[in-house]
Amino acid sequence: MEAPTSAGSALPLADLSLFWRTFFLLALLLLGSILAWLQTLRALEYEPRAVQMAQQLASQVNLSRAALVHADAIARISLLKTMSDEEGLRIVPREATDQVTPYDSDVVRREVTSRLGKNTVVAAQVNGQAGLWIGFDIDGDAYWLITDQQRFNAAGGRTWMIWLVVAAALSLAGAALIARLINRPLKELSFAASHVREGNFAASRLNEDVHTSEIREVNIGFNRMAQRLAKVEQDRAVMLAGISHDLRTPLARLRLETEMSVADLDARAHMAADIAQLDAIIDKFLDYARPDNVKLGTVVLADVVDACIYAFKDQPDVRIQVRLEDDLLVLAEEVELGRIISNLLENARRYGKSPDTGIARISIAAKSHEKWVLLKIRDHGMGVADEQLSNLTKPFYRGEAARTAANGAGLGLAIVDKTVQRMGGAFVLTNASDGGLSAHIKLQRSVRA
């Protein structure tokens, strides 16, 4: 048995809270700004530095080549040693079998080639040895000029990348802090609204001394609204208590006078029944208008069901079958839960009788499912037209005469629906596939302390 659920009741998984939406929007803005800054850096810093680097490399090659060409053999050896020791420049012969890995900067390769000639080679690795290698010719002989690549970093080294990552991390942390500060008043307002919805007006007061003027005005307006609602609720309770007292006193006198003064037994019985009906209607109004806040506790479902079906055991037109899981505990208000089950059983007894036998066969079943307990009360009568199911829980609604030929106030199922919601559950009516009306109650599951 599973209680039917509405397709619109489940929120899509893709829905995000206002905090995460604000955070992601700020994060996108900040990351976009960082990328724009990076592109600006590349346009204004990277290419000029690459061109400057290429000019320095070409100048080193030209100076080294000129010095070697104009030096004699003995001075050439001393010059090569001095260049290697003091300037970090080495010149070695270039072989046709050298394995060359090209330098990764197109700008540097293009600028060096344009200054030294089309046969110039710029490499990042030769024969597995890393460095900055420039291939050039001296009197028809091919040579490599080798220098440290770190001395010519077109992008300024890795330091700026580290700063870029740090800036991005700090920006995201700032975005999270800003989103939290922006959404904190809305979160407090949401909590306060939930307290008002549950009828807990005392716990719904917001701070009226915040520094932000817009938030302060919203908090003041919300507090005044909550105060007015609390006053309206209090006035309603007082009014209902007065109506109950003022109506029941003359009804009691009418019943007494009817029983004492009316001689016709049949007329007296009908008059007494009408008075009893008026008294029951008053009870229904009071039940429906009862405040929403209830105190929930752990209730043994089987005990409540047994107490409710006891009143129907001696009635010849009712057959009740019970199937409950062992030791089912629900989080509910015991008296209210008993009124719910009794109301549904009485509704099934009145309107769920079989046309053939005139007996109302009622089945009660319940089982646990994760954090919930699903209770089903079903009759085997004629059921209700599908288009009327959603209206049965509306106050004062009466369906077709075949099922609702009673003369009540039309509040029974509306009271059940409202009471179940007050206890944090859900109530749904459906037609059974093989006939009859099924009432599905979803209650919070409880555990023993």
From TrEMBL:
Residues 242-447 form the Histidine kinase domain. One of its GO terms (cellular component) is plasma membrane. Its EC number is 2.7.13.3. The keyword Cell membrane applies. It catalyses: ATP + protein L-histidine = ADP + protein N-phospho-L-histidine. Keywords: ATP-binding, Cell inner membrane, Cell membrane, Kinase, Membrane, Nucleotide-binding, Phosphoprotein, Transferase, Transmembrane, Transmembrane helix, Two-component regulatory system. The keyword Heme does not apply. The chain crosses the membrane at residues 18-38, 160-182. SMART domains: HAMP, HATPase_c, HisKA. It is an enzyme of class 2 (transferase). SUPFAM superfamilies: ATPase domain of HSP90 chaperone/DNA topoisomerase II/histidine kinase, Homodimeric domain of signal transducing histidine kinase. Residues 180-234 form the HAMP domain. GO terms for molecular function: ATP binding; phosphorelay sensor kinase activity. This is histidine kinase.
